[in-house]
């Protein structure tokens, strides 16, 4: 059984797991934020007031019954009124998350609404964002102004000088919206640090979402020899590690590893990445997919990279906070910051949005031994390599380099290592 299955887990267990993940991800403080679920009886399960978010247990979760009576050993969250107001005005919403993640708070205190057209899945998962004027926290009137925004159809609302609140059809849906929106805001903020973010048109996003992946035919039968099963375990561990390191979010990221010849294993598109299990991963053999499973929509790209690059045995396609600053601005990421960065990466060119679509050749004509990684504007970073751990290391190095550059932008002009120093590196490490 999965760690998080809304159909099988009690609301108090779902809430405890999600608030722990929010806290461990640095998206709320010990005292901040609240999470709730409304069950099939109309009872609302909600985090307690003034209890450490870093150590909540299922027994701490409060229940406010449909008749208004309260069950539990604490007080319900002081923000319970706006949770109730959202459920009353939007019956299809079954889970609500409120917190004060740094980037979203930044937007709330400058009183701006983030433009989710900066990356396709932000628009797809979050949609347009509502805006609730400031009212006293915990007050009934705050619930009223938030409910007014949800009545307009928004599933995520910026709370003026406060934070954000999101709703979902279940807890997984709500968490993905919350996490994706904070990532979107970080991308915009970091992008503004080094340049000017570019935004996609609704038509570009619709074209991306309307792509019909070249769905491979199913195998008639499938085998799972020991070497294949070992790759599944390796992929799962790297995906979980990427999520823990902030190099992948639950709604986006693909990992694949070559198996035998041009056969490979690849992650699926709809499973929360931090919850990925061995059985979720899809085998691609002889141009066919494992029966009953849907592989990543980027499967065609992975397949073609393997066919054309015998030296490539693993691929990671993901979004990371600082690399995406260069992706959304189109600014050149100069990896000549420290020797390790250049040795590992040499060059990371920007590719136009859409070059990752099935049938496009630009990325395939660029990936090589000398160019192991590319940035796709307003979409992702693609890193290739031999062993999966080494490919992951390249991703970490690239993100650390991008972070150093973004942070350094506030200090002065970048001074990279010079051409003679680069040539010395080439002779010593790449000859």
Automatic annotation (TrEMBL):
Pfam families according to UniProt: Aldolase_II
Lineage of origin: Bacteria, Pseudomonadati, Bacteroidota, Bacteroidia, Marinilabiliales
GO MF: aldehyde-lyase activity; metal ion binding
Keyword match Amino-acid biosynthesis: no
GO cellular component: a single term: cytosol
GO terms, biological process: pentose catabolic process
UniProt keyword list: Lyase, Metal-binding
Domain of life, per lineage: Bacteria
Domain Class II aldolase/adducin N-terminal residue range list: 13-189, 233-406
Record-given protein name: Class II aldolase/adducin family protein
């Amino acid at each position: 059984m999965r760690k998080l299955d809304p159909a099988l887990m009690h609301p108090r267990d779902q809430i405890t797991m999600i608030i722990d993940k929010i806290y461990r991800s640095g998206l709320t403080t010990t005292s901040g934020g609240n999470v709730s679920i409304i069950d099939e009886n109309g009872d609302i399960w909600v985090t307690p007031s003034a209890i450490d978010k870093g150590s909540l247990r299922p027994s701490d979760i409060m229940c406010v019954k449909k008749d208004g009576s309260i069950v539990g050993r604490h007080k319900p969250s002081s923000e319970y009124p706006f949770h109730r107001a959202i459920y009353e005005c939007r019956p299809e919403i079954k889970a609500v998350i409120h917190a004060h993640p740094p980037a979203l708070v930044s937007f709330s205190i400058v009183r701006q609404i983030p433009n989710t057209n900066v990356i396709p899945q932000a628009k797809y998962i979050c949609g347009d964002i509502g805006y609730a004027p400031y009212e006293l926290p915990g007050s009934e009137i705050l619930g009223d102004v938030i409910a007014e925004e949800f009545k307009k159809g928004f599933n995520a609302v910026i709370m003026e000088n406060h934070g954000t609140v999101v709703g979902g059809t279940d807890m997984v849906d709500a968490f993905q919206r919350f996490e994706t929106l904070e990532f979107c805001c970080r991308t915009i903020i970091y992008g503004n640090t080094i340049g000017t973010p570019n935004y996609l048109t609704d038509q570009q996003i619709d074209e991306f979402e309307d792509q019909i992946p070249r769905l491979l035919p199913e195998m008639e039968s499938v085998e799972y020899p020991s070497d294949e099963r070992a790759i599944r375990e390796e992929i799962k561990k790297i995906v979980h590690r990427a999520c823990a390191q902030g190099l992948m979010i639950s709604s986006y990221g693909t990992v694949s590893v070559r198996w035998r010849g041009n056969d490979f294993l690849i992650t699926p598109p709809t499973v929360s990445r931090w919850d990925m299990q061995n059985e979720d991963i899809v085998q691609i053999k002889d141009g066919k997919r494992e029966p009953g499973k849907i592989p990543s929509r980027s499967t065609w790209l992975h397949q073609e990279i393997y066919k054309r690059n015998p030296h490539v045995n693993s691929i990671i396609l993901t979004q990371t906070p600082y690399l995406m600053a260069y992706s959304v601005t189109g600014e050149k990421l100069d990896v000549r910051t420290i020797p390790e960065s250049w040795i590992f990466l040499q060059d990371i060119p920007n590719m136009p949005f859409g070059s990752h679509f099935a049938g496009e050749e630009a990325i395939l004509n660029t990936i090589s031994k000398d160019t192991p990684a590319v940035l796709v504007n307003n979409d992702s970073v693609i890193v290739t390599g031999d062993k999966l751990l080494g490919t992951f290391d390249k991703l970490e190095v690239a993100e650390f380099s991008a972070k150093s550059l973004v942070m350094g932008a506030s200090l002065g002009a970048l001074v990279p290592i010079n051409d003679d120093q680069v040539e010395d590196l080439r002779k010593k490490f790449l000859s």
